[in-house]
Structure formats: structure tokens, C-alpha cells
């Protein structure tokens, strides 16, 4: 309870202005105490107050909700297959989850698969525990998209559920579709090129140089998509998009705002993906 400002305000108000000065000083002191309370509560305003959840509690809720929603998205295609379970395990490996952390993630994933899983309520809780911070909500959505794309494709039912997830987090359909295109490009970009290993031997004697050139062109196109800019964007626009994305996905900044430490590796991977795409574009376009 913050009363220090009220006491000082009333005291000095009475000292200099008598009873009326005390009342005025009490009011000023009250305003001071309110400002002090908000400064000590970075998630202040609305439902957040000094008796609200701690940083560790917010991080725990974010973590559980992320895996629960992953389970719900995986169930969208019907029966969750061994492949979906394996993909969830891959996500846990990427986060380096072991022991109790891994069991908590598995339990949340199972809860998300239940027929009566409260998706909208869960997403409302995510918005509450993040304080509505755009970059954390964006990371949550991109995490779901990344998990859905982990097998290299996106089922129509998964896309439909992702639209519900995006809406529940406060993103429009257009914003989701843009991120889906970026993630699809990122998947190809990480895989090493548009054609992958297909046709390597076939083109060994006739046109291997053309195959390599085509692959480089595809990777460059995907790099532009990763940054969310068109291939005819100028250097200024490319740099602006790169800096914006790096600022939104910087691991340390996300951690400071409430990202669970278990997800630091995922944030690092995303920032490295953005960096690699930008480096390729800079090299191919001669951007200084």
C-alpha cells in the first residue's frame, strides 16, 4: 500500500496552508502514490495491479498456453497422429526442455487436444498475462505457425484454427496470412533452397550450373519473403524492414518483457533466420 506521498503531502500542506492546504497536499500526495505504484508495476493499468501475477507466473502461463494451443492446432486435422506428437517433441527439443519442464509441456499439449479445450479463454489469458504487448503476442502466434509448418505443409483445418488463434490474440486475417507466407518462405529458406536435393544427380551432366542458379534465385526470393518485402524493394526499405523485425524479435528484449526463458532458443533461431535472410539479400544486391 502506497501512503508515503499522502502523509508528506498532508503534512507540508497543513504546514504552509492550514486545513485547506492539508487537503490539497493530500490530493497531490495521492497522485504521487498512484504514479509510484504504476512505475513499480510495468504491466499496470486495467486488470494488472500490485496484487497481480508475478513475472514468473506470467511466464509460466505463457509457456503452458503455448503448448496447449499447439495441441489444439494439431488436433484440427482430426486424430492426432504420431507425426504430430513427434513434431511437438521436436519443438520441445528445440527449446531444450527436460525433466519437469518437458512433462509440463506434454501435459499442456494433451490438454489442448481435448474436445472441450477453451481456446478463446486461453487466448484471453495470454493477452492478460502479456499485458497486451504486441511483440510477445506476435511471438506466440509465430510459435503456433512454426509448429503447424514443422512438417513442411499446412492443412486447411490447421489454417482455419490459426485464424481463430490470430483473432483471439488481436491480429487480423490479413496479418495472419502475411505471417503464414513469411513462415512458408522461412521453412524453404532454412531447408537450403527451392528445389532442395531434388534433381541434383539428374542435372549433374546437363545444366548443373543452371540448377545452382535457380536454387540461388529461389533462396533470394524466400529471403525477401522472410523480411516481408517485395523483391523490387530498395535498400532503404529493406534495411527498415530488417531493423523492425530484429527489434521485435530480439531475444533479450523479449525476455525482459516476459518471454519464458525456456523459449529463448526459439527467439534466437528466429533472429538468426532474419539475419541470414538479410545477409543474403545484402550480398546479392550489393547493399552496404
Helix-strand layout with pairing:
Blueprint: H1 4-39, H2 55-74, H3 82-94, H4 99-113, H5 119-129, H6 134-148, H7 156-169, H8 173-191, H9 208-227, H10 235-249, H11 251-257, H12 264-285
Describe what you observe in this structure.
By secondary structure, the chain is an all-alpha fold. Helices cover 72% and strands 0% of the residues. It contains twelve helices and no strands. The radius of gyration is 25 Å and the shape is globular. The N and C termini lie far apart (55 Å). Residues 37-50 and 193-214 have low confidence and may be disordered.
Quick gist of this model?
The protein has about 290 residues and is mainly alpha-helical.
Q: Distance between termini?
A: 55 Å
Number of strands: 0
* Helix residue percentage: over 70%
Radius of gyration: 25 Å
Q: What are the secondary-structure elements, in order, as H or E? A: HHHHHHHHHHHH
Q: Which regions contain 5 or more consecutive residues with pLDDT less than 50?
A: 37-50, 193-214
Identify the overall geometry.
globular
Structural class: mainly alpha
Q: How would you characterize the largest beta sheet?
A: none
> What is the overall number of helices?
12
